[in-house]
Amino acid sequence: MTTTSAPAPAQAPTQSDARRRELRRVAFATVIGTTIEWYDFFLYASAAGLVFQVLFFAPAGPEFATILSFATIGVSFLFRPLGAFLAGHFGDRIGRKAMLVVTLVLMGAATTLIGVLPTYEQVGILAPVLLVLLRILQGLSTGGEWGGAVLMAVEHAPDGKRGRYGAFPQIGVPIGLLLASGVLALMTGVISPGDAFLEWGWRIPFLLSFVLIIVGMIVRRSVDESPVFTEIAARKEQTKTPIKQLFKRHWLLVVLAALTFAGNNAAGYMTTGGYIQNYATTPIADGGHVGMERTPVLLAVAASAVVWLIVTWIAGSVSDRIGRRNTYIIGWIAFLATVFLLFPLVNTGNVWLLFAGLALFTIGNGFTYGQQAAYFTELFPASIRYSGVSITYALGAILGGAFAPMISAALVQATGTATSVAFYIAGIMIVAFVATLLLKDRTGIPLGPDHEAEQSASAIYGVK
C-alpha cells in the first residue's frame, strides 16, 4: 500500500522577505517618480533649444531669441530654493512621502499645460509670459522633489548600501533625459518631421506627461514613509523651524556642499539644459557652427544618457566601497580630462563623434552624481535633513546650471568659439573640486534620531 505524504505547509513570509519587498518598492518608486519629474524638466530644456526661440521669442531676432529661450530655463532655477524651502519645511514637519506626491502633481500639471499654450504668433506677448509662469511652477516642483526622493531611498537603505540605493533616484535623471530625447526624436524623425514638428509635433511629448503623472502617483503612494521620519514623528521630535536651525548651525556646510553640486550641474546642463542640442542643430545660415539635423542629435543625446545612467549606477555602488569623497575626486579628474574634448568632437558634424564626446563627458557626470544622494543625506542631522538636502541642491543648481546654457550661448556669440565655454565649465569644476576637498567623508554615519549629536558635528575640515 502506497502512502502519500501531506504537502509541506507553505512557509510564512519572514520579516527579511517583507523588508526586501519594501526596499524594491522604494527603489522602483524613486526611480519612476524621479524619471517622470526629470522627463518633464528635460523636455522643456530640449524644446527651449530646438523650438521655443521660434515659437515664443521670434520677434527678438535669431540670436537674442535663443538667449531668451535659454534664460527661461534659468528663471525656473531661481524658484527652486522657494520650492526647497517649502518642501523642506513640510518634509521635516509632516513627512517625506506627502511632499513627493505634491511635487509630482505640480510638475505634471505645469508640463501638460505647456503642451496647450498658444504661441507668440497667436496671442503676442502673453505667450512667453504664460510659458515663464509655467516654467516657474516646474522650478518650484523640482526644488522640493529631489530631496524627498533621495531621503526615501537612502533612509530606507541597509547599512553599507546607501550609495547603491541612493543611486536609484539619481538614475531617474538620465532615464528622464533618455525618455525626453527619445520621444522628441520620434516626433522629429517619424511622426511629425520638418515643419509639422514646429506646428504641432512638439506639443505631444508635453501632453504625454499627464499619463505619466498618474502612473507616478500610484507608485509613490504605495511605499511606506521613511523609517527615520517615522521614528522622529513617533517621538514627536519634529523641528518647528527646520530652516532656521539649518542656517543657524550649518550655513557654511550648505554653501560648500552646494558648490560641489554646482560643478556637476553646470557641466551636466550642457546636454540636459538643451545647449548642445541647440549648438549642434542651428543652421549655419542662421549663425550656427555645425548645422546638423535634429533627429540624429537627439538620438546621440539619448544614447549618451544610457552611458550616464550606467556610470551613475556604478558610482553609487563604488562609493559604498571607497567612500563618497573619493568617488567625487575620480569624477572631477574625469571631467577635467574630457571637458576640452567635447566641442571639437561636436564641431566635426559627425553624429558618432558627437556621441563619443557626450559619452566621454558623462563619465565625470556620473562619478560626481551617483553618490550624491547618500553624500548629501549623510551631511545633515535627521531633524533638518529634508531642508538641508533640498536647499543645498537648489542653491547648487542656481550656482551651476541655472544660466549655464544662456551664458554658453553668449560666450560663443562674443568669442566666436566654443573653447570659451570649455574654460567656463572647467573653472566651475575646479571650484567644486576644492569644495569637495574641504568636506569630510561621512560614509556610513548613523542616520537615525538617536545619533543627532554625531550628525550635528562639523563636516568641514578645520571647523569645529
TrEMBL record:
Places the protein is found: Cell membrane
Keyword GTP-binding: no
GO MF terms, alphabetically ordered: symporter activity
Domain Major facilitator superfamily (MFS) profile: 26-444
PROSITE patterns: MFS
N-terminal signal peptide: none
Record CDD domains: MFS_ShiA_like
Membrane-related topology note: Multi-pass membrane protein
Pfam families referenced in this protein's UniProt entry, alphabetically: MFS_1
Primary residence: membrane
Gene Ontology annotations for the cellular component aspect, listed alphabetically: plasma membrane
Keywords: Cell membrane, Membrane, Symport, Transmembrane, Transmembrane helix, Transport
Transmembrane regions listed in the UniProt entry: 64-86, 98-120, 175-194, 200-219, 251-276, 296-316, 328-346, 352-370, 391-415, 421-439
Domain of life (superkingdom): Bacteria
Function statement: May be a proton symporter involved in the uptake of osmolytes such as proline and glycine betaine.
Family: Belongs to the major facilitator superfamily. Metabolite:H+ Symporter (MHS) family (TC 2.A.1.6) family.
Descriptive protein name: Putative proline/betaine transporter
Species of the source: Agromyces fucosus
